[in-house]
Predict the structure of Methylenetetrahydrofolate reductase.
Amino acid sequence: MHIKNIFSNKKPIISFEVFPPHKDYSIDSIYKTIDELAPLNPDYISVTYGAGGNSVGKNKTVEIASIIKNKYDIEALAHLTCIGSTKYEVNEVLKALNENNINNVLALRGDLPQDPSFKFPSRLHFRYAVDLIGEIKKQGDFCIGAACYPEGHIECESFNKDIKNLRKKVDSGADFLISQLFFDNNFFYNFRGKANAEGIKVPIQVGIMPVINSRQIRRIASLCGAHIPEKFEKIVDKYIDKSEALKDAGIAYATEQIIDLLSSGVDGIHIYTMNNPEVAKRIVSNIFSIVKALNSSIAV
Ligand code: FAD
């Protein structure tokens, strides 16, 4: 099923993100994770593609998405990045997705190389995610998601310009959006208002990352530059070397964020599970009655 159709029938929708295991870990570890996520009845599960320089992920994304869809009968969303890929390589992945009955793709540019002297080559088939969206549209009956940034994308010179670029992705065929993580919901409400004013009407799902260890905090700060509110900083400072306490506090913080977002009418929540089913289970349990109440109030 196309994810856009799930959005049409349900609000909010709840989904999870997983990533292919690092090459030092067995592929079986991800199947164990999915085994534990499946009974939580997510509306879909997404699988990242080579995120964080994980080149193993590129080979395994289709395989894992296929297991989610064809063994567990859960809708799968395959991430696909385009920077540094040829048209042939992208089309090979799309062909494999088609063959495995996966018809939802999150179209992404991917992160640029860390080298500060990096310059885009003059001839490049895919420079931005919008170029990939155009290609996916040509290659089959895919439902296409794209990324959005409530605090603005880290490279963009202005927030307003970033929103205008987002509009181009929607105009090119993005059916829904998933947000970058954030820790202060006010950024999201401001972004949603600006996006709506720019004429962006597709569903916007909120990406939430429960922070449960100190390694994650360092990565977040360096990768996406999310603003860390004082309230959150206090938690991190207090429990940084007390892993169980940090986990409890991180889950509580994410739960509070989600309840506020759900009460403000968001289209859906996408939980960055970090392949940790316990965290997903605890959050789903915390919001269970709220999601049920919201879904039962939709007139069918
Ligand atoms: P784009 O939409 O192309 O935007 C990139 C920058 O270019 C922005 O600053 C934008 O304002 C600007 N821009 C866009 N279009 C134009 C234009 N036409 N003209 C001028 N400027 C333009 N990375 C991975 O490697 N693998 C993953 O699986 C992955 N999953 C992700 C999932 C989510 C939900 C999110 C939010 C991010 C994910 N990322 C992933 C990270 C993503 O690849 C990076 O954030 C990347 O830097 C930007 O990707 P994008 O698709 O948003 O790029």
